[in-house]
Design a protein that fits this description.
The chain contains six helices and two strands, in the order ααββαααα. The chain is mainly α and about 160 residues long. It folds into two domains: about 70 residues, Multidrug-efflux Transporter Regulator, Chain: A, Domain 2, CATH 1.10.1660.10; about 55 residues, no CATH class. One of its GO terms (molecular function) is DNA binding.
Length: about 160
């Protein structure tokens, strides 16, 4: 083994935020090369391995299936993306999916905010029933744009 810095699986997991079990699994399915072993059988990782695990983690966060990550591992970090148009297109597609998911989640957040505001007004209405305020003094909450598909997540009660 070279005198370069090496890391245990525990240290590698801590540096990458990926569990030891997941690292072992990535080795098992050959997303990662088999780790070298010390004389005692413990795995040894290098900085290059840690960088590969970080790349896998980023690709996983995009929603890319594990099998689709393999071509990205074959490309060096300093390669020209123009030399790999199919990979660039795949990442652009993943980005578009993520942007769409963000927009959908924002609609859900807006819907929840709207429902929380309605709940506030309902409390005010219950105060009115006790005679504390005239019925016409409560303003309607401003409605936010919520898609019909998002409305279906929250049935009317």
């Amino acid at each position: 083994m070279n005198p370069e810095q090496t890391f245990t699986i525990k240290q590698t997991a801590a540096q990458t935020g990926i569990s030891e079990d997941t690292i072992r699994y990535y080795e098992k399915i050959a997303l990662l090369p088999r780790a070298e072993r010390k004389d005692n059988g413990h795995r040894v990782y290098r900085l290059e391995d840690i960088n590969t695990i970080r790349l896998l983690s980023c690709l996983k966060k995009t929603g890319l299936p594990l099998e689709d990550m393999r071509p990205f591992l074959a490309v060096s970090a300093d390669a020209d993306p123009g030399d790999y148009p199919e990979l660039v297109e795949q990442i652009r597609s993943q980005r578009a999916n993520i942007v769409s998911q963000i927009a959908s989640l924002q609609q859900i957040v807006d819907f929840i905010d709207m429902k929380l505001e309605e709940g506030k007004y309902r409390r005010d209405c219950s105060d009115e029933s006790s005679g504390n305020a005239p019925a016409n003094s409560v303003e309607e909450p401003s409605s936010k744009q919520v898609s019909p598909s998002e409305m279906s997540y929250f049935p009317n009660r």
